[in-house]
Write a structure and sequence with these properties.
Strand content: over 45%
Order of helices and strands: EEEEEEEEEEE
Distance between the termini: 40 Å
Largest sheet: 7 strands, mixed
Mean pLDDT: 97
Helix content: under 10%
Number of strands: 11
Length: about 110
């Protein structure tokens, strides 16, 4: 059974940092590209960052370039999103996506507010 479990969200002040994790199981994690997406209230889900299976290629949305870093640990079947210099407009539910199996996690809420 494919499972993606996100964690690490929370409430943070503008300028702060959070590290999201997505623990995967039920498929060959090391063979799948992974990505983080987010959905703010009233808006469509958007791609935030993408990482290839071997972590050789990374891509970011323009809105997060230079602030967010995606990484993965294939030995732990986990993908991460380090978020620095957070802004109120980063507030959203963040989801991870496994391309190989076409599955979403349940999401983790990130709220950036003073």
């Amino acid at each position: 059974q494919v499972q993606l479990v996100e964690s690490g969200g929370g409430l943070v002040q503008p300028g702060g940092s959070l590290r999201l994790s997505c623990a995967a199981s039920g498929f060959t994690f090391s063979s799948s590209s992974m990505s983080w997406h987010r959905q703010a209230p009233g808006k469509e889900r958007e791609l935030v960052a993408w990482i290839s299976s071997a972590a050789s290629t990374l891509n970011y949305a323009d809105s997060v370039k230079g602030r967010f870093t995606i990484s993965r640990d294939n030995a732990k079947n986990t993908v991460y999103l380090q978020m620095n210099s957070l802004k109120p407009e980063d507030t959203a539910v963040y989801y991870c996506w496994a391309a190989r199996v076409g599955s979403w996690g349940q999401g983790t809420q990130v709220t950036v507010s003073s």
